[in-house]
Design a protein that fits this description.
Distance between the termini: 6 Å
Number of helices: 17
Order of helices and strands: HHHHHHHHHHHHHHHHH
Shape: globular
Number of strands: 0
Protein name: Flippase
Main location: membrane
Structural class: mainly alpha
Organism: Corallococcus soli
Membrane topology: Multi-pass membrane protein
Pfam family, one: Polysacc_synt_3
């Protein structure tokens, strides 16, 4: 009788099956916590515009964007490095974690002093300066928590983290709701975020010690090697962060804080399409890291199917945002935010492209082409502010209300188009095969039919019924054309219900001699 050896095809297939089952279960666990946290965030996103009004809401969004931009440097590129390396060698985490924590603490102290000096000379109101400083503390904690979460995702231990996400979101949302009920000043509205991130750090540190045996030790030599490898990841993260934050800062200076409020309202609604974005770093990236360690072909196959799933989720959400923009603005933001509808329509397609670039960047990173990701992200970080500088004064003076906000949305749209084209061009045939291209073509046809139907019904059917009819048309269209395959979705659900080990690293294989 022959028993499988550790390198036999049977063992490798079993390990892959266990890995997929573990990834699906992790996705469902994290997805469940995301549903809860997004429900809380949805309530807060509807509350804050109504509580503050367009101008104060503009100051609120501008303050967070300014603080986040200031603290980009503390990212260090560690999050991406962890998700690439730790899934295949978990013990490596203790080599650099302690030293990088001290480095971040020193950088935070210096940046807080610099931020105070900058704010002192900007002429912003004192309450806004205090708000920015609170947001700065929050973002310094967010960066550390992102690394802690990356460690746990790399190990596949997400149950405790899922509970932590819910607890900390309740702290944040409950704190903001309480402050709104008490009518506190705008300068204190970032305190709940600081409190929630502090709670998350305590919980995450405990989970990392339990599941990874994480130790706080100082190893400067090892950390230097890690920082060298993190350089492209750091530059990419800095470019992406600046690309997503400097636009609000420029809009507030070149137009008005009210325009920032309208743009912030549109961005908050469109940002709901990022519901599943954390899954990419939490589950997909570690899974693709293991696939890349086995073979480039397996990595490419996983990438193509992931892109199909991305489009299946994001395209209908985008269509709902575009066709129902006026409805969503009234529902989520309330009176005074009507001009946010046009920027919302412009922003909605961006998030489809953003998801595509997420998957593409993971493939490039796992294929050791991380400098290409850095190049494309840096180009976007340069193009976006230049477009803002050109478009904001032009449209703000010609369109009136929401002209500046629309200009900022257009700048992000054109930037995302450039980055997406660069990523997919570098991937070549590793991005889409015949199956996925057929799916894209069918989906595009269904979208065209939905837009035509919406325009045809616009003069005779009210907004909500019209949106319902177009949504039904989309669902029927993608099912009839085969753009979406329900059988494959059911297969994923069945896989999630199976019992087994969560990851191949937990599969114990004993070599038995031939009898």
């Amino acid at each position: 009788m022959n028993s499988p050896t550790p390198s036999s095809p049977e063992v490798e297939d079993g390990a892959r099956a266990n890995e997929v089952r573990g990834a699906v279960r992790s996705t469902l666990q994290l997805g469940g916590s995301l549903m809860v946290t997004y429900a809380i965030a949805l309530g807060i996103r509807a509350l804050m515009p109504r509580y503050l009004g367009p101008e104060a809401f503009g100051y609120f969004n501008w303050s967070e964007a300014f603080a986040a931009t200031f603290f980009v440097a503390t990212n260090l590129g560690l999050e991406t490095y962890i998700r690439k390396e730790v899934p295949v060698r978990p013990d490596h985490a203790s080599d650099f974690f302690g030293t990088t924590m001290l480095l971040r603490l020193a950088m935070t102290a210096v940046l807080m002093v610099a931020l105070a000096l900058v704010l002192h000379h900007t002429g912003e109101p004192p309450e806004v300066q205090h708000l920015v400083q609170w947001f700065a503390v929050a973002h310094s904690l967010i960066v550390v928590n992102a690394s802690m979460a990356a460690l746990l995702h790399s190990k596949g231990k997400v149950a405790g983290l899922s509970i932590s996400n819910v607890i900390t979101k309740i702290v944040w949302g409950g704190g903001l709701a309480l402050m709104a009920a008490m009518g506190v000043g705008i300068q204190w509205l970032a305190v709940p975020m600081v409190a929630s991130e502090a709670v998350k750090l305590v919980i995450s540190w405990r989970l990392a010690k339990v599941h990874l045996g994480l130790k706080f030790r100082i190893d400067i030599a090892a950390t230097k090697k890690v920082m060298k490898k993190c350089l492209p990841f750091f530059l990419t993260a800095a470019a992406l962060a600046c690309n997503g934050r400097t636009d609000m800062s420029l809009l507030g200076k070149l137009a008005s804080k009210e325009e920032v409020g309208w743009y912030g309202g549109a961005f908050s609604i469109a940002g709901l399409t990022f519901l599943i974005s954390p899954i990419f770093g939490w589950v997909l990236m570690p899974m693709m890291s293991r696939a890349a360690a086995r073979s480039p072909q397996e990595l490419s196959h996983l990438t193509r199917r992931s892109l199909e799933g991305v489009l299946a989720f994001t395209v209908p959400v985008m269509m709902a945002m575009v066709l129902g923009a006026d409805l969503w603005v009234r529902l989520m933001c309330g009176p005074g935010f009507e001009p946010a509808a046009l920027p919302l329509r412009v922003l909605s397609p961006i998030f489809v492209m953003a998801y595509v670039t997420m998957v593409s960047s993971i493939w490039l990173t796992m294929s050791n082409k991380e400098w290409w990701v850095t190049l494309a992200a840096t180009m976007g970080a340069v193009v976006n502010p230049l477009l803002n500088l050109a478009l904001i004064p032009w449209l703000y003076g010609r369109m009136g209300a929401s002209g500046g906000a629309t200009a900022t949305a257009l700048s992000m749209f054109f930037t995302e188009v450039i980055v997406t084209v660069l990523f997919l061009g570098r991937m070549g045939r590793n991005s889409f095969d015949r199956r996925s291209l057929v799916m894209v073509a069918k989906t595009a046809v269904v979208c065209g039919v939905c837009v035509a139907l919406d325009r045809f019904l616009a003069g005779s059917v009210s907004a909500w019924p019209r949106l319902g009819l177009t949504a039904t048309t989309y669902v029927v269209g993608v099912l009839v054309t085969g753009a979406i395959r329900p059988a494959e979705l059911l297969q994923v659900v069945r896989m999630a219900r199976q019992r087994g080990n969560a990851a191949p690293s937990e599969v114990v294989v004993t070599a038995t001699p031939t009898v």
